[in-house]
Amino acid sequence: MIECAGLHYSYDGTHDALDGVSLTIADGEFVSVLGGNGSGKSTLARHLDALLVPDSGHVTVDGLGTATRRNVYDIRSRVGLVFQNPDDQIVAGIVEDDVAFGPENLGVPTGELRARVTEALAAVGLSGFERRETASLSGGQKQRLALAGVLAMRPQTLVLDEASSMLDPRGRAALMHACHRLHSQGMSIVMITHFMEEAAEAERVVVLSHGRVALDDTPDEVFSQADALASLGLDIPMPYRIGLELREKLPGLTPRVTVDAMLGELQAQAAQRGQAPLGTTTAQRGQTPLDASGAEGSCALRVEDVSFAYERGACPALRDISIEVREGEVLGLLGHTGSGKSTLVQLLAGLEKPTRGRVACKAASRVGVVFQYPERQLFARTVREDVAFGPRNLGITGTELAACVDKAIRGVGLDPEAVGDVSPFALSGGQQRRIAFAGVLAMEPDVLVFDEPVAGLDPRSRREFLRLLRKLHAQGRTIVMTSHNMDDAAELCDRVVVLDHGERLLEGTPAEVFSHADELRRAGLGLPGAQEMASRLIELGWPLRRDALYTPDALASDLATCLGAGAPAGTGTAQVSGGER
């Protein structure tokens, strides 16, 4: 279906974004593409539907060369591309008009067009949104809309450029289900992702590094090269990590890349060793709840009986929300797409006023907000000018301003001498995100509010950014963050609030909140990866602690004990999620 041969491409004529890429994708194949930010993944995706054409080498789609202009229409009717940022491909003001745009331009008759729009919206979970304004949708809902617009064109190949990065757990699961269903019907799938668990479900994994193909094999073979992946800044799937930990104590065990396969391996190991997990009396260490440092601190922000609607008479985005943000804590706001998280962030930052109720801030406190796409906060000619904008508007000038700017740039792990006079738009995506963050830090806010701070980052950049958040928290900053990543919430947060359709559903420490597995699943969320696996093992009769908050390492240790290969129960030290903090 697709062939790339010796593909070279440069945006500036100097540095190759793609450097000799050669690969083929068979008709009906499911391929996942991995790589760090800047490895060439998105550039490759844009070559697959002729948005870009090679500087040298060639790309063919179903035998059609992408460099031949007369082929472009036929190529784009065969290949549907979903961008990482849905705003880049939403063209209409009303949802059903946007979904209809593509097939209408392919000449689909009016009667069939209506059926395609209905079918595509149902496939992505947006039935009933037909007359909604696209501008009123959340980031995750926009991503689903972009996918619907592509599905309505019924392409032979679907290319997803990190299309799951802004989706909640239920949305990601639905996307994977849709991909498998389309694949079973004969569609070729090319999924670019930073989620290793998604890549593990493909038939084949291609890893890019510096514009070149570094690895290309089955998921089992690629993820067995853990050291090579780590050197590329990538991770391995959580089940495989647990399997590697267990194999040190159980040499006969084979690590598996998916949860289902790893569960099957554990069940087989238990039967082989004569261990019957159901009803055994092995005591489990599990994991202690998070240290709730700052949990009893004074109030930095208070949300009191707040309701909010974007338009008079519209369905409220928030209903009767009351939350305290305590000084010195990390508070996580979790919820499905459209649950009201981003709306609450805007209220905390004073960018919107409640329809009812009030948001109160401690006297003289400043609140800094970093949005879902922090790179969009950049606008100035140089990095220093961009970072200086906020403090200058607060009246800081001269040498004090220069010192403030350089301190903020160093605070996000960059060298002001190296990047200060560079255009922010010449930086990598990860560096741009850091500079946007520096512009907020330069105003020295007491409370930092992050809306999906690590969405779209590769594993290495994500780890670096989370370390930065821990550093700021250790310095006494109060942090509020929204997230769709349950592992991040378990690792970082002292306290978690779960929103569901604009209402508060759960509140407590991560250990307390993630003990409500059924409620979280009903709300479109899930559990941290290791916790999800532990939950499923408990359902199978394994005697793991129901009140524990498991990390992969702690779960591997307890599973080894269950299988008769671990230390005696109670001899180890309970691990604490977020212990790096």
From TrEMBL:
The keyword S-adenosyl-L-methionine does not apply. One of its GO terms (molecular function) is ATP hydrolysis activity. Residues 2-235, 301-526 form the ABC transporter domain. Pfam families: ABC_tran. It is found in: Cell membrane. It comes from the Bacteria. GO terms for cellular component: ATP-binding cassette (ABC) transporter complex. The keyword ATP-binding applies. PROSITE patterns: ABC_TRANSPORTER_1, ABC_TRANSPORTER_2. CDD domains: ABC_cobalt_CbiO_domain1 (cd03225). Keywords: ATP-binding, Cell membrane, Membrane, Nucleotide-binding, Translocase, Transport. InterPro entries: AAA+_ATPase, ABC_transporter-like_ATP-bd, ABC_transporter-like_CS, ABC_transpr_CbiO/EcfA_su, ECF_ABC_transporter_ATP-bd, EcfA_1, P-loop_NTPase. Belongs to the ABC transporter superfamily. This is ABC transporter domain-containing protein. It comes from Parolsenella catena.
